[in-house]
User: What shape does this take?
Amino acid sequence: MIKYAPLIAAVLLGGCSLMAEYERPAAPVAAQWPAAAKADGQRKVAETDWRRFFPDPRLQGLIAAALEHNRDMRIAVARVEEARAQYGVARADRFPGVSLGAGRNASRTPGDLTATGRPLNSQRYDVSLSMTAFELDFWSRVKSQSDAAQAAYLATEEARRAFHLSLVADVANAYLTLLEMDERTALSAATVRSREETRRLVAKRREVGIASDLDFLQADGAYETAKADLANLERQRAAAENALVLLVGRSPEDLPPGKGLADQGIVADLAVGLPADVLLERPDVLAAERKLEAAHASVGAARAAFLPKILLTASLGTASRALSGLFDAGSGAWSFQPTIAMPLFDWGRTSAGVDLAQAREVVAVAEYEKAIQLAFREVADLLAAREKLAAQVAALEATEQAQARRLKLADARYQAGISSFLEVLDAQRESYAARQAAIQQRRALLAAAAQLYKALGGGGDS
Assistant: This one.
């Protein structure tokens, strides 16, 4: 209590809020993006909603269904309503509550307790408007609590927006993963059929003495390996489909046909401004700042607990011994009971409340700064990936074409008896691996575009 004496004296003389003015902490990141993060782009993310960014009609249907049926999304919306209600409760404390009351009070006093020795019966009727224990918020304690509740409500709203955006990106990523598994499974199934045919042809060549037992065993091993790879990809595809259903919240039905990976039309040509312009508008960063504002307001409320509370209780109405005389002239009644209370000795409870609020503010500052740092890294990584993944896709597509030509040439050489069947098997494996890698990398490029859209804050909440 003694260490707060100068503060209490200053406020008693000034009669003002104990909550210091809020100042946003400086962003603990560089003012420019790293050199590897290319920020050039054509479209502004704020003007690009998810329907324009993801043109595949089937993906649009899945995202819309997820926003409606996803259980975590429902929880996020309900959290916002919960916080809004809590803010309404806190805000109501800033205004006097008036209630209408009516009552009858009857009593009987035995004769041995009265002056006349005879029993005394009495009754009273009251009708009044009353205000009970309304606090004059001279030190802005109640206002600080209300501000803290409002900031907490706004934090949940920003958290809902952040989850909304994450859900859009997650559904897009799950859909792209399913498309990847569809294409890789189809390629694997075609490879199984091709190697089965190769195995059959080698078996016939062996029967007529053109191919050796070694050629047949090599063809048979390649066929069995392809079957195992197909089974593994089918398992992964089933898992990808289940993950998508979980995100959407129900099994997709009545959706328009979709497009393949190569026809998705997802282009990460998003213009990126300076870090201070981009990061501070992300909903997750805004949510962290709202939590910081709530913690800051709670410090003011905790400090105000050291100062006197002025409470007003009042009522205005009528009173009478008989119900019929309740509204007669002269039956008016009123009461006014102001009280003032100030803590003297509470064994450090109030002081500990201030320490607790200040510690929570320190935590909120650190969490806000951490949110900015994580956002900076996420955007920088995705900006670097945007260019490098495109280069990888182009290189893998060229590799795919080269391996296809090699396979064709190796097969022709084997048929002509110039090379062994081992050369054909090696060309088959390399061609198959190149095609699988190209599919994987196309999906990675599209997924990075979806994540960049989320990392930049998306283009609206519709």
User: Anything to note?
Assistant: The chain has one domain: 2-96+139-306+356-455.
